[in-house]
Amino acid sequence: MASKRSEEGCIETEHCGDMLPQKKKKEIRIWMDGCFDMVHFGHANAIRQAKEFGDVLLVGVHSDAEVTRHKGPPVYTEEERYKMVRAIKWVDQVIEDAPYVTTLETLDQYDCDFCVHGDDITTTADGVDTYHLVKAAGKYQECKRTAGVSTTDLVGRMLLVTKSHHERDEDSIDEHHVGAISKMILKGDGGSSHSPWTGVSQFLTTTKKIIQFSEDVGHVDFLEKAASLGDFLIVGIHTDPVVNRYKGSNYPIMNMHERTLSVLACRYVSEVVIGAPYAVTPDLMEHFKVDVVCHGQTPVMPDIDGSDPYAEPKCLGKFKSIDSKNNLTTQMIIDRIIQHRLEYEERNRKKEEKEKKILEHMKNTAQIKTG
């Protein structure tokens, strides 16, 4: 029987003229949970992949008490971790104080169809798989873990004061990972569509294609406040040598590649410029029609020639100093880690031991099956 669509969006049959309501597609709701301590681009990439499994993504974040019990003391407080996860652009809802072991009751409570987690190992203090219940019920899906970054690794960099993670030039940017973070893979699109939220620009000294937004990549409160000043927020990312020149020690803790991916994942950021120059130039301001250049409350170190890197926007009346009302800095986080150094080292050691035992068990099980 032939049919046609009416102006109201219903199906009208030619024989009887009856109006049948169009069936609405069921919304797929996804659950993901974790500690999300020292939120980095590995967390963001897992969240991005999880969102691609459905329509609405709920992210449960464990409390300080739960994290301490099963892993050891977190670096960030639960309130700080809740805020950082909410700032990731693919998160639709954050569930505070989520249980450490994911249960079917939790999925039912929030009307979630299934749970998504990375392909790494997560266990309780007793060595039990935290996802064994949802796995047994067939309500578990996996996404790929981002290699090369973890909270354990970042804590290690801070404790060891190493610079081996630094990059020496812009060519070391991994375009594959940047592209994955900066695009939402749309169904039926083959991944070719650009993200409706985020663009990426690579700074090339010969083209002057650069937008300087701020000296510091900053934290969530700063970016949120900066974004409220306009319609399109552009963040310039300095190279590792530039950051090291004005911050010293082993800064930056994350290299330019890692910082780029982390900033791209922030819901307040519209575009990221890789390898932004330290000083804001007249050509830059004119070419990109920049309305406001923002900086936080931290001291501004002069450029190599002793000049103020913000002299141009200040002269044009386009410079704004932002007070995010949050005094948390990278140095304060490092101080927390140093203060509890032995606890974090023990936490990392125990985590590594548990993972080795589980991997060995999995290897032995595989050998028995194939033998």
SSE blueprint and pairings:
Elements: E1 3-5, E2 11-13, E3 19-20, E4 29-34, H1 41-51, E5 56-61, H2 64-70, H3 78-86, E6 93-96, H4 104-109, E7 114-118, H5 132-136, E8 140-143, H6 151-160, H7 175-182, E9 199-202, H8 220-227, E10 234-237, H9 240-247, H10 256-264, E11 271-274, H11 282-287, E12 293-295, H12 311-315, E13 319-321, H13 330-339, H14 341-370
Parallel strand pairs: 4-5, 4-7, 5-6, 7-8, 9-11, 10-11, 12-13
Antiparallel strand pairs: 1-2, 2-3
Helix pairs in contact: 6-14, 7-10
Notable features of this structure?
single chain; 371 residues; alpha/beta; 5-stranded parallel beta sheet; 3-stranded antiparallel beta sheet; 14 helices; 14% strand; disordered N terminus
Question: Can you summarize this structure?
Answer:
The protein has 371 residues and is an alpha/beta fold.
Q: Could you explain the architecture of this structure?
A:
It is a single chain. The protein is α/β, with parallel strands linked by helices and 371 residues long. The chain is globular, with a radius of gyration of 24 Å. The strands form four sheets. A five-stranded parallel sheet has the order 6-5-4-7-8. Strands 1-2-3 form a three-stranded antiparallel sheet, with no helix packed on it. A three-stranded parallel sheet has the order 9-11-10, covered by helices on one side. The chain is built from 14 helices and 13 strands. Helix 6 packs across helix 14 (341-370) and helix 7 (175-182) packs parallel to helix 10. Strand 2 (11-13) and strand 3 form a beta hairpin.
* Share of helix, binned: 25-40%
Provide the residue-averaged pLDDT.
Answer: 77
Beginning-to-end CA distance, first to last residue: 59 Å
With helices defined by DSSP (H or I, 4 residues minimum), what is the helix count?
Answer: 14
Query: What string gives the helices and strands in order?
Result: EEEEHEHHEHEHEHHEHEHHEHEHEHH
What is the rounded Rg?
24 Å
Strand order of the largest sheet: 6-5-4-7-8
Shape: globular
> Strand percentage, roughly?
5-15%
Low-confidence stretches: 1-16, 169-218
Largest sheet: 5 strands, parallel
Q: Would you tell me the structural class of the helices and strands?
A: alpha/beta
Count the E strands. 13
